[in-house]
Amino acid sequence: MPAIINHKICDQASACGGIEACPVGAFTYNEKTKRIEIDNEKCISCGACEKACPIGAIGVATTQEELEELTQAIEEDPRKPEDLFVDRYGGDIINEDVMIEFSQIDDIITKEDCLIEIIDEDNIMCLLKSITYNDILANTCYKKYYRCLIGQNDNIYKYNIVELPSLLLCHNGNLTKVIDGYYEESEKDDLFKQINS
Question: Which of 18, 41, 57, 91 could form a disulfide with 10 if both were Cys (CB 3.0 to 4.6 A apart)?
């Protein structure tokens, strides 16, 4: 059974984890097409490539039924490669304009109705579990979004944060709610409801 790549979210980088992990050389980078390719005649369905992909773009089927499920999931996936380069809740930092220091949080809470995302740079799962923050702002009552990258000495527990990333909801000069953890694209409506409640 073959390995399959979700090219909608694959960034087509030549330094692909699947290429490095494959024990039989089934994965290659095509310099001409600038795409990652799989020779499924070589593939032994060991799953090493699947584990090596940090964004979940590679799947390995061991049965025809699994192959059909993977193919259908890719066909129905609304994402595209450009989504890799969009600011996301729980994702990579792109827009420096939204960045604040940990020491600024208390002041912002008292002055603005906003969402403050607290993240740990070493705990990023960008596309695998993340939602664009423009989507969050478009579907919630908040119109301002800040992001804070924590340092080793920052006391996140003062805000009752249990798990990162975390969203602080600030309203009328108070911290009104804390939402912890990642939310996948399929869970975004639940996240919006929590924010709007």
Answer: 57
Q: Give the chain's mean pLDDT.
A: 88
pLDDT digits (tens, 9 = 90+) for 45-64: 899 999 988 778 899 998 99
Q: Give dist(CA 121, CA 148) in Å, integer.
A: 10
Type and span of the H or E element at 137? helix 133-138
Distance (Å, rounded) from C-alpha 82 to C-alpha 33? Answer: 18
- C-alpha torsion sign, points 179, 175, 194, 112: negative
Are 6 and 74 spatial neighbours (Cβ–Cβ below 8 Å)?
yes
Q: How many angstroms separate the CA atoms of 27 and 47, rounded?
A: 12
How many angstroms separate the CA atoms of 37 and 20, rounded? 13
CA distance 149 to 179: 16
Pair 136, 115: CB distance under 8 Å: yes
State how far Cα 39 lies from the chain centre: 28
* Rg, Å, the chain Cα set: 20
Phi, psi at residue 29, to the nearest 5°?
-105, 120
- 73's CB contacts (< 8 A; 6+ apart) are 6, 59
